[in-house]
Design a protein that fits this description.
InterPro entries: EHMT1/EHMT2, Pre-SET_dom, SET_dom, SET_dom_sf. One of its GO terms (biological process) is methylation. One of its GO terms (molecular function) is zinc ion binding. The protein contains five helices and 16 strands. It has a domain of 180 residues: Beta-clip-like (Beta Complex). A four-stranded mixed β-sheet has the order 1-2-6-7, with no helix packed on it. A four-stranded mixed β-sheet has the order 4-9-11-10. The C terminus is likely disordered. The longest helix has 9 residues. The chain is of the alpha/beta class. Strand 10 and strand 11 form a beta hairpin. Bound molecules: S-adenosylmethionine. The site of S-adenosylmethionine has 13 residues, from strand 7 and strand 13.
Length: 278
């Protein structure tokens, strides 16, 4: 494997990108999600041919359909929920951004739901409304593959998308030989998995960084006790247009990986052995 120096990345950034798809979401998002290749190196784009873009959780095994449907959570607030509202976790400030990231990451955050009396514009309805900020998929490099970058400036604490894909149980997850796109979640006390290998949205292209600018929080907007926990992505820094979006995959993900991390951050924790790619 060649040594990747800083010059390689600087040089590649100067190349004119090629539009491979004008909108890989095919209208599933509020914005187009273009895919950019790079003439400087070859990138396998065959995955896009069989990839089904969806911005939703696909209940393949009926895990959600078989839940009891009795509404447990519902507020009686009029218009905007008050700070005393039983649904509100006080995480979202005015405009729906998160002010306190620690609070967001502390536990599952409950948003108001379809049985709540409050308005659709209530500030406790954020992630349920879907992604609002345009992003693009780009050819990062031949080793990491594709990545995601912001198409506009995005403020700190902004919801940018939900990890979408097929909702499967543990047994099915073990049978799927590629664990790259598996993300654990819960429905009530049951642990389930979202697999975004074949179906998903742009979040499945987000790469790892040891100094990430996006965090993944647990959010629910179900009325039922047996709630689906949605894995929701929020910016943890102010993001500039063109900046790559990254998350921390966590130690468990890296535990059995045979390749080094290419995040190039000074805080990188997974550069194994004598790897010279600095
Ligand atoms: C969830 S996918 C992210 C999208 C992926 N880059 C692609 O082209 O489909 C995770 C895979 O991306 C690559 N990857 C992501 N972050 C990386 C990093 N920091 N260093 C090296 N490879 C990375 C690895 O091949 C990993 O298995």
């Amino acid at each position: 494997m060649p040594i990747i120096g800083k010059e390689w990345f600087t040089d590649v950034a100067k190349q004119q990108p090629m539009v491979l798809y004008e909108d890989i979401s095919q209208g599933c998002e509020r914005f187009v999600v273009p895919v950019y290749s790079n003439p400087r190196f070859f990138m396998d784009s065959s995955l896009f041919e069989n990839f089904k873009y969806t911005s939703r959780i696909i209940d393949v095994a009926g895990q959600l359909a078989c839940r009891s449907a009795s509404p447990t959570f519902m507020c009686q607030c009029a218009g905007q929920c008050s700070t005393n509202c039983e649904c509100s976790s006080g995480v979202f400030g005015e405009g729906g951004t998160v002010e306190n990231m620690e609070l967001l990451m502390w536990d599952t955050v409950r948003e108001c739901n379809e049985y709540c009396n409050c308005a659709l514009w209530c500030g406790n309805r954020v992630a349920q409304k879907g992604a609002m900020y345009p992003v693009e998929i780009f050819a990062r490099d031949p080793w990491c593959g594709w990545g995601v970058r912001a198409s506009v400036d995005i403020a700190f604490g902004t919801f940018i998308g939900e990890y979408a894909g097929e909702l499967i149980d543990d047994e099915e997850a073990m049978d799927r030989h590629d664990s790259t796109f598996l993300f654990e979640t819960k429905v009530g006390s049951e642990t389930l998995t979202i697999d975004a290998k074949y179906s998903g949205n742009y979040t499945r292209f987000i790469n790892h960084s040891c100094a990430p600018n996006v965090k993944v929080a647990n959010i629910s907007w179900d009325y039922d006790k047996i709630q689906l926990i949605h894995m929701c992505f929020f910016t943890d820094k102010a993001i500039r247009k063109g900046e790559e979006l990254t998350i921390d995959y966590g130690e468990a993900w890296w535990a059995n990986k045979k390749f080094p991390c290419l995040c190039k951050s000074s805080e990188c924790r997974y550069q194994f052995g004598n790897d010279q790619r600095t």
